[in-house]
Amino acid sequence: MSKEILLVAEAVSNEKGVEQEVIFEAIELALAAAAKKRYDDEEPEIRVVIDRRTGEFETYRSWLIVSNEVVPALGSELNMQEAADIDTKLQEGDTHEEQVDNPGFGRIAAQAAKQIIMQKVREAERAKITAAYQDRIGELIHGTVKKVTRDNIILDLGANAEGLLPRDQLVAREVFRIGDRTRAVLMEINPENRGPQLMLSRSSNEMLIELFTIEVPEIGEDTIEIKAAARDTGSRAKIAVKSNDQRIDPIGACVGMRGARVQAVSNELGNERVDIVLWDDNPAQLVINALAPAEVESIIMDEETNAMDVAVTEDQLAIAIGRGGQNVKLASELTGWTINVMTEEEAGAKQEEEAGSLVENLMKALDLDEDVASVLVDEGFTGLEEVAYVPREEMLEVDGFDEEIVDELQSRAKDILLTQAIASEEKLENAKPAEDLLTMEGMDQHLALVLASRGICTMEDLAEQGVDDIVGIEDIDEVKAAQLIMTARKPWFEETE
What distances in angstroms separate CA 383 from CA 266, 404, 406, 410, one per listed residue? Predict the structure, then answer.
């Protein structure tokens, strides 16, 4: 038996490329399982130890010592009274172990052992694959099509590794047959997956970036940097590139001689058209570059909403938007800004409407005539805070404003802001949150006062709110809002239980 164990361990290890220690551990488990079958009505704790040099093995049975007040589990536990008959030194919590006869190895036991060994081998193989590819996430992987199903493509990556390429991660209209060679980006490793655990993609932005990295040596050398990418898979894509060497044109390098480099990437992606955009740290200029070939006339940025209003001439509108909004969509994804494309006339009308609203607000707030309010808006003043606290010297530079006018405007603005602050403080002071709201998990006194000032005085009041109702209060984001509301609703679930 001992020689057979050594031979099995060596053979399986060589065949599967798994360490012999893993095979020995699997055989130990298999022998332990065979030994347990001798105890029909019990669930004993069995341990088998194999000598790695000789192949000889020994079998041990163990019992856990429990108190006399506990009913011991049959076959695996002993109470203190039973333990005293064996050894008076045994204490509660100790383990008593005895050597028992080695198990016989009949046909059924051999079959069970085989299953255990193969399971251990599979687990070891999976762990080996995970370790081998752990540092390759985001890299381009080569493989051969092994199996084609309705939902997935299975790739043989070599060394017993398989990759899963879902059909929704393919480039549009791609067809693969068994034996075809292809490339895909490794997106993630799923060690829990029973089948292929390496998740691949050909439709991701990373695929586009990796292909350019291969085709353009300057990118691999960090002379040229890909700052962002956006794809409408199988149709069109945009990449933003930046040169770290002023002597090198990043767009020309990515295009290549007679377009050879960009064409090679396009061919790999089913003739996907790729626009190469020059990166600019100025967001407005980056948007202008990203919308090419459309010519931009003007841009208005709104940093609070992270949006830009882009004005173009009537004949450039269709080009800027693109077929089905494709161009502006990719430009938005590439730059990270929400881009609103409109004609010059539409942009002018929108600006007039917004300016009129600002003028009206300043007229009401500061009791001004339309002319003065219009001058303030034209000079970039949009609210009371700007009027009140902008340096006095800057306001004096406005045409028609003397020291008397500036002092009066700033005095009025400061008085209004002070009045609003006092009213807000009084509102908070008068707000009386209930004790359950004050002591609720995740709540502090100031936040409770703010919520109470808005009519949310108890946990019950908070529980009845929706996430959208409290988002924005004291910088509460969606996650924080959801946590507070669920905490407030805990009593509801306790009552139902």
Answer: 50, 20, 15, 12
